[in-house]
Design brief:
about 230 residues; 7-stranded mixed sheet; homodimer; 3-stranded antiparallel sheet; alpha+beta; DNA-binding
DNA sequence: TAAATTAAGTGTTAGAATTACATTTAAAAA
DNA sequence: TTTTTAAATGTAATTCTAACACTTAATTTA
């Protein structure tokens, strides 16, 4: 019996769907698009498209995201392949979901006019098409997981950010308040933040110091397999 | 511009590759098969095949594993989709890798005669075809991760096992020795093991108590989102 | 049948990490 | 000058981690 006969192999449409998380200093949001084609025209959907025969998976994800939203050079990670036979009513497709984290304000201009994508607070999402609700659930779980075991989250903030902003972000991801003193101690002890000395004064009279993320120090720690658990409480 | 035109979508061969980990009370091993077809005839490979148009992804994984090895009803989890355009020299394929954990002795009879699959100690693996080395690397990372954050590992042992056997398994997964007293305390404090009262005497004169894994208690803890980190040292 | 052998099983303690908690400080506004 | 606002900071009780060595049960051997 020849299991692996290329001639007889079925060929399948491979879709890519992108779960785009954003943060605007207040809340965690999800980027959705209103479909202007059948099936499910007019309903909200994740950013999706089909993988081309000549494309790497991650190339395809970046292309689709760019075509639909104008977003480029963003952090994009593979989440999971969704393989239900009937997940798409038109034709059997396999969808490889990817997720991304972005700073909403920094990318506002790319998104604006031409694209029909909108941000929804994570607490007030419309029902999504196909199995996109499952994808979102899986992405949220992954985001929480990643945020507690790696120094993720910086992608969701501007290059310079204050510790109160960073704490707010983590509180959104975890959905609960964190102790300010313990949070600062923990984050700073990772030694991947640099205090720029500049202050951001829009949110208080005293002003909060602006920090930047030290990517090279972070990469070094990761290469060395350092424990990056945040253990936030 | 119509991104999502089903007519124009490329159709791609979707492969499934399975990384099968096994444990025989001594070593962690990997199940490989010698290819008897081109390309790469005669070289060692993961268990692989093509997804059918009518199959769920996980159905396909189970079918392929069964066809190639006779193994059924085993724990199989999706790992990652590998999407390099040139990963297979014959034709562009997307491969969704899955991994499994089994007790080698318990499944020995299913594997035996008819199949040309063999177990290789994880330390002495041959070079694998295509991107199978990358898949293996990713699966090992995932296994280590899972083993430290969930009570995985029981799948690799018989229904009844001793604590020294379980410790040996974890030592194989982590690739380093663990302290016996700390290991026992930690594992038992999870409260998912049941001492059967029976003793297993093949490995010592005194004999070690046989334990079983309390699946329902484990499921309950998982539902409640309990922290399952083992933090073994 | 006593002694030797073998691996299983068991507790303690110093040091580190976690967590809960309240006051001071800097700067602008009144 | 006083008030207001949010940022920044330290400590102590408790829990967890990790290092460490002897006793026990049962078989084997002398």
């Amino acid at each position: 019996m020849e299991i692996t006969s290329y001639q007889n192999a079925d060929r399948i449409v491979v879709a890519i769907d992108c779960i785009i998380f954003g943060f605007d200093k207040e809340q965690l949001k999800l980027l959705l698009i209103k479909r202007d084609f059948e099936p499910e025209r007019g309903h909200w959907s994740l950013m999706g498209g089909f993988l081309k025969g000549c494309e790497h998976l991650h190339q395809g994800a970046h292309r689709i995201l760019y075509d639909l939203t104008g977003l480029k050079n963003i952090y994009l990670e593979q989440l999971h392949a969704f393989g239900e036979v009937t997940r798409d009513p038109v034709e059997r497709t396999l969808s490889v979901a990817h997720y991304a984290l972005i700073d909403i304000e920094a990318h506002a201009f790319e998104l604006s006019e031409d694209y029909s994508a909108s941000w929804f607070p994570i607490q007030e999402l419309p029902d999504l098409i196909f199995d996109h609700n499952d994808m979102l659930k899986a992405a949220l779980d992954r985001l929480q997981y990643k945020a507690s075991h790696e120094a993720i989250g910086f992608e969701l903030l501007p290059d310079k950010f204050t510790l109160p902003e960073l704490q707010k972000l983590y509180e959104c991801i975890y959905g609960r308040p964190l102790d300010k003193r313990n949070f600062r101690r923990r984050i700073l002890s990772m030694d991947v933040l640099i205090n720029t000395g500049e202050k951001e004064k829009s949110s208080s009279k005293k002003g909060a110091y602006l920090y930047t993320f030290d990517q090279s120090k972070f990469n070094k720690l990761q290469r060395e397999g350092q424990n990056m658990d945040l253990n936030l409480y």
